[in-house]
Amino acid sequence: MKFIIWLILGYIAYRVIKGFLANRESAANPLKGTEAFQDPVCGVYVSLEDATVGRLEGERIYFCSHDCLQKYQEKLQNK
Ligand SMILES: [Zn+2]
Predict the structure, then answer these.
(1) What is the pLDDT of residues 27-61, one digit of tens each?
(2) Cα of 50 to ligand 1 centre, how many Å?
(3) How far is CA 45 from the centre of its chain?
(4) How many angstroms is it from 40 CA to the middle of ligand 1?
(5) How many CB atoms lie within 10 A of CB 42?
(6) Digit-coded pLDDT (tens) for 10-23
(7) Which residues fall inside 5 Å of ion ligand 1, going by CB?
(8) pTM higher than 0.85
(9) Half-sphere exposure for 53 (CA within 13 Å, toward CB)
(10) DSSP 3-17
(11) Over 21-72, what HEC string results?
């Protein structure tokens, strides 16, 4: 009988540790699960809600701020 109790305790401990690790993982990456885009100017990841969208050469490009959008446009013009 004791063996079964240890088995259950071991299973509970396993679930607790697994849940703890999963929580830590999602805390380390707040953008996980949402759509994220990389700003090509500064390399920062932005979510769709926070992004500044630029339509350049028929492409949709996402930036962290209007400053980065302007820098990108200047780069294109200097090509
Ligand atoms: Zn940026």
Answers:
(1) 655 555 668 999 999 999 999 889 999 988 788 99
(2) 11
(3) 7
(4) 7
(5) 13
(6) 999 999 999 988 87
(7) 39, 41-42, 64, 68
(8) no
(9) 8
(10) HHHHHHHHHHHHHHH
(11) HHHHHHHHCCCCCCCEEECCCCCCEEECCCCEEEEECCEEEEECCHHHHHHH
